[in-house]
Amino acid sequence: MNAAGYQQLLEQYFLPQSEHIGGPFFMFQQDNAPVHTAKSTFEWFLDNGVHIIDWPPRSPDLNPVENMWGILARAVYAGGRQYNSTADLKKAISSEWSKIEQKCLQKLVETMPNRIYELILKQGGKISY
């Protein structure tokens, strides 16, 4: 994935649903991957009126999707399961993904205020912009 591909994904899938998901004054959260921090991506967000949360580096504990990947991985490899082919692994991932309830995803998102609060406490109450 390069910055242009990331922006295309955002254009095609994110923008049409963004206000529906996050409301009219939503803020977008992403990590510091190079495609996310590219100058052209920054300009894309400005051009499209998307406000970005400034995210500290090396902070996967603050990102709900990282927890989601952990939940999925534990389900896929439960009981020490191993797979003989990529096709079998893909099938297992798809199967386990479909079993994850919306309420689980919502709960991960709802924990964000506490995650941010914990971050502020760890930094001694100092927030830098």
TrEMBL record:
<feature type="domain" description="Tc1-like transposase DDE">
    <location>
        <begin position="30"/>
        <end position="89"/>
    </location>
</feature>
<protein>
    <recommendedName>
        <fullName>Tc1-like transposase DDE domain-containing protein</fullName>
    </recommendedName>
</protein>
<dbReference type="InterPro" id="IPR036397">
    <property type="entry name" value="RNaseH_sf"/>
</dbReference>
<dbReference type="GO" id="GO:0003676">
    <property type="term" value="F:nucleic acid binding"/>
</dbReference>
<dbReference type="Pfam" id="PF13358">
    <property type="entry name" value="DDE_3"/>
</dbReference>
<dbReference type="InterPro" id="IPR038717">
    <property type="entry name" value="Tc1-like_DDE_dom"/>
</dbReference>
<dbReference type="InterPro" id="IPR052338">
    <property type="entry name" value="Transposase_5"/>
</dbReference>
